[in-house]
Amino acid sequence: MRYLERLTTAEQQWRDRVIGAVVQRLAPEWLHPNHLTALRLGLTLIAMACYFTRRPLSWQIWLLSIAALSDTCDGVVARTRKRSSSFGAQFDYVTDWFLGAWTGFLTISMGLLKPRLIAHILIPQLFISAADWLRAKALTESREAGEVMVAEAEKKKAAEVASEASEAREAREAREVSEVKKALHTVVQTAQFHANTLSRARFTYILTGLLLLTGGMVYYQPLLHLLGLAAIIISIILSWLLAFNNVTGLMQQQQQQQPVPSWRVDRRA
Questions:
Q1: Which domain, by its residues, includes 156?
Q2: pLDDT tens-digit profile of 30-67?
Q3: Whole-angstrom Cα distance, residue 16 to residue 169?
């Protein structure tokens, strides 16, 4: 396990202990992590409606801030209550993007970000997105290969069932194959949207920075503006680090998958 993966695991366990203890006490049992994700999406849509209906900008700041806070809880609820799913991972990923994109649009439309900062935010994101897409493609190919193996296992077990002529065994084997398929699909789909500590910190800093910049202008607080700029700069540094990590990791993965040239094979007996 690489250093970043170990750091991600440790950070996730720490959040589950700290935030999970609060969630277990305050959140009702019926609360599902997708409820929190849907709340975040709804708050973002309400903030958009406030923008187009020319409501006070302070309303949008508070709505987006509450939406951002909800992002710290849905993953913890999913893990502590054993309610993780591939749909939930994708839903959370898309909703975070939607929240970040709208907050960024709001900040840029107010002229609070210089073009140079915008470029430093977008350029590493292109590298990150490209690496994520290629990794997702590789995971999809791995899933397809796994499905082929499952299909072969189905044929083999079907032959065994036919030879034994046992209806009970047939039902059990079919159930086992179905569980393997479901587990394979869930693991692969969730892995495509799994965020490591670096990407989570980057998103947190950039979202916090955008909200602080906007809040500093709304409430005429220069300190909020300075804190927002500092958070944006930290997020840019993290973005380049994440882009470098993703690209180098992808290159190493491709090198491991490449066949060894024939002239490099040791032909000694």
A1: 3-254
A2: 888 899 999 999 999 999 999 999 999 999 999 999 99
A3: 41
